[in-house]
Write a structure and sequence with these properties.
11 strands, mainly beta, nine-stranded antiparallel sheet
């Protein structure tokens, strides 16, 4: 008698991770609050009145203490850094660092407890809706890593030169290595550094804008 094989899970399908980021329990959220780590993972749809178009707005934020870290950053679809709209200076560290605005975004979020890591990479675009002037944000999950490990302690003085070159290793439930999409390797390395940076007071991913005016990619525009 033939047995039916179970359908494989589609990790790219829409999921709560895609829209809201890594779901953390109350204990984890209380621990982050107690340690003064604030990470804003939400993305909003905003209207540019002069340009007459809609864009996505995110806030690079987060930081770390010795035993815990959480960070949220945003990059282009190809994994490259985005110039910030404006930096944010705060009295307390490990909070909001920079505002990012673009027609489309990829969010990279990481959560660390000691040497155990959670990672979520999600894509966010604008999609027009019939009968509506305002587009909706469509989110999709590109990668989800659970209980990843990093053999080295990036807080140790002797390992500081390795920052920006390492990322956690993630495995499937069956023990197979889960590969992070190649175009986001560098960005994940940077976010790994961010969740191991004590009292973070600056953006790790977003770039300082050039004095030369730049234009966002036109293919992602949604005009009002």
């Amino acid at each position: 008698m033939q047995t039916k094989s179970k359908p494989q899970k589609n990790v790219f399908a829409a999921s709560p991770y895609a829209q809201y980021g890594i779901p953390l329990g109350r204990a984890a959220l209380r621990a982050l609050e107690k340690r003064g780590i604030y990470c804003q993972t939400s993305i909003s749809v905003e209207h540019q009145h002069l340009a007459k178009r809609y864009v996505l707005r995110g806030v690079e934020s987060g930081g770390a203490v010795s035993d815990m870290g959480r960070y949220c950053a945003f990059v282009n679809m190809d994994g490259t850094s985005i110039p910030w709209l404006q930096p944010i200076d705060s009295i307390s560290p490990n909070g909001r660092h920079a505002v990012i605005v673009a027609p489309e975004l990829v969010r990279i979020e990481m959560f660390r407890i000691e040497r155990t890591y959670e990672l979520s990479i999600t894509q966010h675009i604008l999609q027009t809706r019939e009968g509506h002037r305002k587009p909706e944000m469509v989110s999709s999950l590109l990668f989800r890593g659970r209980e990843g490990t990093l053999g080295l302690d990036l807080l140790a003085k002797e390992n500081l030169p390795l920052r920006g070159t390492l990322a956690p290793t993630f495995f499937s439930e069956s023990g197979e290595m889960r590969k992070i999409p190649a175009s986001f390797h560098e960005a994940v390395n940077i976010v790994t550094t961010a969740v191991n940076t004590l009292a973070s007071k600056r953006a790790h991913m977003a770039l300082k804008p050039s004095l030369v005016l730049f234009n966002y990619p036109q293919h992602g525009d949604v005009r009002a």
